[in-house]
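To: structure subgroup
Subject: Chain for Friday's discussion

All,

I'm putting the inputs and outputs inline so they're searchable in the archive.
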Amino acid sequence: MTTPLVITEYERLSATERERLLHRAEHDLSDIMDRVRAIIGAVRDEGDAALARFGREFDRADISPATLRATPEEFERAFATVEPELLEAIEYAVANIRRFHEAQKPQSMWLMETRPGVFAGERSTAIPSVACYVPRGKGAFPSVMMMTTIPAVVAGVPEIVVLTPPTPEGSVDVASLVAARLAGIERVYKCGGAAAVAAAAFGTATVPRCAKIVGPGSPWVVAAKRLLADRIDTGPPAGPSESIVLADGSADPGIAARDLLIEAEHGPDSAAWLVTDSRPLAEGVVGALPRLWARMGEQRAAFARSVLTGRRGGILLVRDMDQGIDFVNAFAPEHLEILSADPWALAARVRHAGEILLGRHTPITLGNFVIGPNCVLPTGGHARTHSPLSVQDFTKRTSLAYVTADVYPELARHARVLAGYEGFDAHAEAVAGRRPGKRGEER
């Protein structure tokens, strides 16, 4: 029996019930942690053999240790078989994504004079290596291939690899291979889930150990990242998809319903809410959804129904837009789409969201694929403290400082006072007098 789609009235909910609305699939991973630990241990101890075994077990793939890396022939076949229209769309997206991330690239070095003779600044350099994780469990995602690899290439990371689950034939999705090469990546390895995270953390005979791993994934990927955070930088938190469509009475119910389904169709572990202060709009969306489900493929429709009739999605009727904004900020969604007579005014009051898409002509679909900003966004409420994946995630900053001889005594005097107060004798002694130059002269 299909669970009915209902309109939840926020005003009628208790504090506990309101808190439950904020829950995501990645919040409670206790039921899979032991299995993830076992996978990690197997990859650590057995390397490529474990990766191939898990590929056969979880992905039902024809894979062996010898075929874990995508070959040049596989890349060539991908370009030969990808549809021209799809190739054109990938090229269009790559250009926009690269253009946006080029604008993020920091200065290689900057200095400022904080006081006469005192110079301070920073130097930016790329991290040494990164594994870009591209999921495939519920579909193929060349968009994630582009979004994770292009900013790494722009940042100048010297070693970039891709980890992605194999297809049943033991290859890689052709569009994803095309996207990888157009982004500038040739090293693609066929492993997924917790095993892929472990491979990046420990390294195997085939997969190199990496300093960092980025990219979205299932709760299994999230769990592995948590368990391996002391061995590899796990990057911005990016778990199962989530969205809020915030709409007032001016919104078209058909558009609101279509856009509500965008993230809901990712999988049953997604979260998707329509938040509105208009009962007529809410009722219009309820009426529109069954017709839209009927036009979707069976699997995606089932995913969307599961989300929108379950505990992590649906239609939330709020008292007014003030209450709606409060819920958005508490939820801190990965994607926020605003359908309103004045979306800019509402956006100005949003403090916590991975991205904000404004107006009826900016659906989440465009953000996910072709506008340019990164679609790898913080999930699970982490938008309160984290940002979208960017060039900055692939660079690090080193502080620089230089003090001239003339101004040194002034800085030394103040530093000695502070060192003395904090009880650091060697600190104080180091700045107790003038510092001799190479030939013994005072400088």
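Points worth raising on Friday:
The two ends are 86 Å apart (CA to CA).
The mean pLDDT is 95.

D.
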